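User: Hey, my collaborator sent me this sequence without any context and asked if I could get a structure. I don't really work with proteins. Can you help?
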Amino acid sequence: MKKRYFMGIDVAKATFDFCLLSSTESCLWRGQFSNDAHGIARFLAQWPAPRRKPAQIHFALEATGVYGKALVAALHQAGLAVSVLNPAQVKYFAFSVLRRTKNDTVDAEIIARFCRERKPLATRPLRPIEEQLKVLVHERESRVGEQTRERNRAKKDPFQIALPTLISRQRRQRLQQLDKEIAQLDAAIDSLIASDESLSNQSQLLCSIPGIAAVTAAKLLSELAGKEFQSARQLAAYAGLTPAEFRSGYFLYGKTHLSKIGNAFLRKALYLPAAVARRWCKPLKPWIAILESRKLHHLAIRGAIMRKLLHIAFGVLKHQKPFNPLLVFIPKTL
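Assistant: No problem. I've predicted the 3D structure and written it out in structure-token form, which is a compact way to encode the shape of the chain:
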């Protein structure tokens, strides 16, 4: 259904402000409710006029972590079109319209204007199993980070005095405990994916790509859940794996590099798989040889392979077919 009205919502910890705009940018309704179950219920029950049906409204709010989770879930449960926006997009849109004042009321109107003008894609609600997968994957990533820090601290330093026996024993025990917790989380993730036919099939498709194994597949599935990208280029831009060039006329300012304006978790998930693919993925060898012949920095080559893996992942998930080496497109140039 074509949307006739646009609702911008600015979410805070205790409250959320909203602004409803018409297609001609007239303000039809604005206000504030408490950011709890009672306030959300009142918000969904009170509309300015019967003829403005919720199904004709496109709702938009910035990504605010846990603060907006309950509101987004309630809107999805009501079957309404909701877009969760990157705060950076709204920030620079506000600059472009010369916003002179910043407060919750103005921010809600800015979000509504952004929604009316840009018409962002609406997100679909995550299934409960996808929510669980996202929580488990991010919890595992947190444990791995703790493990890395403990291992770095446990490295022997020739200039450091000998550690007391108590500290050395505690560090060993902490590393053993983290190893156990990570193994438990891996088992829980594998069991969760295996229990759902759709996730299991998607994981198998991703694991058919050289360089991507079960852990990376789970990370990709958790981050891509609920997002419907129209093209592989759109997905690469979401991950911040598109090239950024600064050129004006005949002047090139610095070297072309990754934009990194996007999902850092996806980039981190693909970093080591790209190293494996560079060494073992035979279909990519001719293309990688072209990159190496151009004397590119090894990190630039790594970034190009990360983007290529993401393109391949998009293809196997879209067409629901495992990786086929014969279908890999090898461009003559970048």
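In plain terms: The radius of gyration is 24 Å. You can pass these tokens on to your collaborator as they are.
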